[in-house]
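Quick start: what a row looks like.
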Amino acid sequence: MNANDLIQLRNIFMEEAGELFEKIEKSLLAAEKSPEDPSLIAALFRSIHTLKGSSGMIGSKKVTDFIHNLESIYDKVRSGMIPLTKEIIDCTLQCMDHVKVLILTPELKDAKDLKNDQELTQRINEILIDSAKWTQDQQPAQSKVQSALHTYYVYFKPNENFFKDGSNPLLLVEELTEIGETMVYARVDLDVSSEYDPTKCYTSWQVILATDEPMSNINETFIFTQESDIKEVKHLAAGNLLANQNFIEHMPAMYSSEDVSYERVQSIIKEIENIKVEDSTPEVKSSKVESISSIRVAATKLDELMNQVSELITSQAALSLYAKNNFDPTLEAISDNMEKIARQLRDTAFDMTLLEIENLFARFHRSVRDISATLGKAVNFITEGGDTELDKTIIDNLADPLMHLIRNSLDHGIETQEIRAQRGKPEKGTILLKSYYSGAKVYVQIKDDGKGIDIEKIKQKAISNGLIKKTDVLSDKEALNLIFVPGFSMAKNVTDISGRGVGMDVVKKNVLDLRGDISVESSLGEGTTITIGLPLTLSVIDGLQVKVHDTDYIIPLSSVEKCYELKRASFVNDFNQVVTLDDEQFPYIDLRGEFQLPEESAPLLNSIILVKDHDREVGFCVDEIVGEYQAVLKPVGKYYRNQEFVSGATILGDGKIALVLDTNNLISKKHSNLKLAAS
């Protein structure tokens, strides 16, 4: 195997190992509540077994050896020989953390890691020794687990070049022997006249396997084999055929060269009338359907696809503009068709980059469990809306802000059991993490039933820090927003978890970088709710192209409610900056005034675009609405880096640059009366 192949194989392993760690952690936390659930126990064994097999395939012997005994524990649990205890769950969680270290540094150069390795190995061995005692005491119970055995026919013929990537077919056959009782036939397919090449594989295996594992688990044995390898797993009969003496006697001897095909074994079964053969056809059909249900694609390829789609949309915009300026019915029809196809392609590519947010939520269960135990608090952590889909880039960048907010809830929000009991609250606090769609945005909310935020204390702290003056009049919402000021902290003591005042401003910055917004609500004694609003995607948006003076801007179409046209003189000099639309008054922001453009050049008629921001609607006054535009978002340069009203830029069809306005930030800035020294 060359170096590139090894790197590629290792990258695949790292990716799949990451998924397995998530699965194991999720199953362990669920099993903590339902330790006798056989589906959870089976899932745990399956994931640990696959992790061991995968690490063996890339030659990570240290990892394989470490997991082997842990797998033995779950084999006993799965077989009903020992119960799944809290001690086993705790040990497994720590072992998975250690396996992550082992994968990266198998030589364990750090003394702390080496000591941890020895201690965990000892704990695993102690659990296995204790399990032997428990098994002796519970011997009669074992008779319950013999009823679900089935017999399968497994055929495995590796391709001739199987050895060249370092693979060992005997390890796969050995795995089959580990999950049940087996009868193994090896057949060498080499013509005597052919020249023998020791680097090629000429052997195939036919295995009769009696096991209580489902067929999907048997198929998982071959998960890392190539498409050119022949793998067949077929159901033969319910029960253990290998325990039937008649069947054994009719089968060819294992050292013979007789054919042991699936059809041959079936004919033997029919010969011995006391064995009932079940129809295996449905199993085969379902296996075929599963095999094409999904494929794994590298994230970098999806990023590349989105970049190419973005370039296509930009080119298509140029084509549309050319067709518009050069009247030609044929060209216009082609341009319209191109626009339609580009939009469909964009939507399809966009869907491919979406991930369920459950992939992110699942990471926090373990953290909440460990932190609440450290703080001595009882917390019920609930997640909702895990099937909400978001751009994978957003999910990747949302992990740190959410982790910080959850840690704050645990440290500063949720009270100890004693205090909660004194306040008449349930002893166990609750943190709800949920996500949901609203319009074209996704909202992620962290809600706790803790002690809430004391707004008066925030104001006093802000005055003492010089952030505001005593004479400043702040609404509750504006006062709560002070927690996002850099360096602001209400914590009296700095702990390992929080209290340095360097977190919430970073949380807000990270959310803004994602073109999102964040708001906080709190009720003293009842709890705090923090809501993060996020766009579905960071790459391409549907926008409304507008003009202010001679400059083009894009307003995200998802936030636009309605558009109006009014005489500028009818509203622009209003002292309260409100405009009447459909007999209702709305505050408005005059972009010409905001950008300090000369009033003399303003048109007589202006367009008012009503934009929704959370629970309020605000009008944006522009000179002209050009029309809808698919905007491919590009980062802004250094001149606009500190302008919070701009969330990006896009290239128009004529090659000009248009800035994408962050309407939420513009509204917040315009209506804030904070005079923060820090800003």
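That is the whole record. The longest helix spans residues 3-33. The two ends are 58 Å apart (CA to CA).
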